[in-house]
Amino acid sequence: MTQFGILQIAFYFLVLLALTKPLGIFIARVFQGEKTFLHPVLRPLERLAYRVGGVKENAEQHWTQYTACVLAFGLVCFLFTYLIQRLQGNLPLNPQGFGAAQATPDLSFNTAVSFMTNTNWQAYGGEVTLSYFVQMAALTVQNFASAAAGIAVAIALMRGFTRVQTNSIGNFWVDTVRAVIYLLLPLALAGALFLGAQGVIQNFSPYQQVTTLEGAVQLIPGGPAASQIAIKQLGSNGGGFFNTNSTHPFENPTSASNFLEALYILLIPAGLLYTFGIMIGDRRQGLALFAAVSLMFLIGVFICYGVEQSGNPTLSKLGITAQATDSQSGGNMEGKEVRNGIANSALWAVATTAASNGSVNSMHDSYTPLGGLVPLFNIQTGGVIFGGVGAGFYGLLLFAILAVFIAGLMVGRTPEYLGKKIEGKEVKMAMLALVACSAVLLVFTGISSVIQFPEASYWNGAYGPATGNLNNAGPHGFAEILYAYSSGAGNNGSAFAGISANTPWYNLTIGLAMLVGRFLFIIPMLAVAGSLAAKKRVPVTSGTLPTHGALFVGVLVGTVLFVGALTYFPALALGPIVEHFLMVQGRLL
Length: 589
Prior knowledge:
Layout: H1 3-31, H2 39-53, H3 63-86, H4 105-116, H5 132-162, H6 172-198, E1 208-211, E2 217-220, H7 226-234, H8 255-279, H9 283-310, H10 313-317, H11 341-354, H12 369-380, H13 391-411, E3 416-417, E4 420-421, H14 424-450, H15 474-489, H16 504-533, H17 550-584
Helix pairs in contact: 1-8, 1-11, 2-6, 3-4, 3-5, 3-16, 4-16, 5-6, 5-7, 5-16, 6-7, 6-8, 7-8, 8-9, 9-11, 9-12, 9-17, 11-12, 12-15, 12-17, 13-14, 13-17, 14-15, 14-16, 15-16, 15-17
């Protein structure tokens, strides 16, 4: 690691830390119905949304009603996104003439599920598949909608801890509208304007055919990118306008755009942790959660940065300079942009997988085995290391429930968290979410690793652009498959991009993994919220585990890491771990 690289990472984290408190306070005021500096401008828009949607602002919902609204909203979003893709040939703003041939049924299903679940896994190249209209009306809209739904669920869970002996946890429609109008829209607009000023494109022009200096003919894509890039980062979505995502200069042209996009990945997740402390009336609780995720995040960043800066030892044995010098960065630069360097690439890779973002400014498939292991393991923790907008928070609360349950067993007392008893129902719901997500990704990984499809068969993508026969073999090929299903079930969306995933088999099974990862996490956590809201508070005693100090931070971090390690170590051992030992032995270049 270099001194300059460490300073870049430290500066990023300090800026994030400085913004966490003011944003957390603002979010708390929005969802507690208090006035903010944006209310004079945006309150009329909020009222209009309620009037158009027939929503009663003061009406509260039982957790089952809240859950039903989440599911109904998701279904409508899925159908809308699927149909627009299939009909894109008959819709406007399509200068490339894309149609149903580019958006096949299985790919459209996968993409609709992906953007509805806030995963934004992309088995396609945006600039060769989808029209401008689809990118805006379907995908960009879903970037707002899915993010707002995740925030709403997180706020509902917070209310579960704050309310006493009540059967309501808020109103899903009110929470979603407020998330969009007061939080996502203003920040996305500011981000889009900044990115546009940095050179991120925003146009409706047809693709331009140019002749390069070498005399080759090249097609230069265009499109309304800036408006989508801002919300893809802010809403922890990650879906790129172009196939190469934020490595593309039209999405991420400067160091300033790179910094803002990376900052936006963790901005709202960090703010929500502080919001939690405000809403429950004890800011120390939010700071404890922030400390836990920050510790895991920084450990991941410096492990990933360290091994990537060390590079491949086989190259050093061949006499190739692997050390950073004034003229070259050293380390493993494969798949990374020279303008970003190793430090910014590793920082982004860890941030995007610590959250459920999935955008990339380097190719994770080209990382060293241990460098690739860090983002893979981040996803497999359930995306709780900061996590997505809302999704990371309620995932982290799941582990907090398990942590106090384990601590309660150790001291022989009924577990308590924030004045609420953690009993059988809460623990069962938490385990249901964990088991469902891990099971679906491990089962599909195992099947996909051994199944043999006939050459050019339907399931192998006979009619599509990929045949499914281009995947790597050995431990790296297995790691690519494991990463794909981990990314789907973890609602992340990034990939070890060497895998040819645009086949019916992968489109359908990864789509199913996304649905399980989203809704079999949300439903149990909303059940927990309803159960907690109905309980009375219990007094703090000498046997109560303090949940705002270093001890609890350690227990929580240990719970996250050990649950992830015990669940996924056998699979990781077959992939990146064995690949690392092969590299050390000089059998991998």
